Request: fold
Amino acid sequence: MQYNLMIKKSQNLKKKHELDSLHIFTFDTIDKNAITNSRNFDPLHAIPEESATGSAHGGLACYLYKNGKLNTNDLQGMKFEQGYSMNKPSIVIVSLSTKEDRITRVQVGGNASMLEEKSIEL
Reply:
């Protein structure tokens, strides 16, 4: 699907369902140790696409856990890919803590690189 068409469809979905952003994922990953490869769109806030979205991956990990899509024996240091479509590959690391099948803690992290610096005047 063309990038501009993807943005337009995400804008329509966000308006129709009052969404803040759209996080799309697939289990088809580049790194065989990653759980998903994701894209995150938020053009309504002037962010056409993000190369790494920690908050979205924390939520995604919880969603996958609740729907039985994660290996419940290994919820620490899970790798999620993002940014490959932008030539800005990122790995977001998520750890979940659980007690009696309930999520008690979500930790999100990763490494970052300076790609560009901008200044704004307030």
Summary: The longest strand covers residues 90-99. Residues 3-17 form the longest helix (15 residues). The mean pLDDT is 86. The chain has one domain: 3-110.
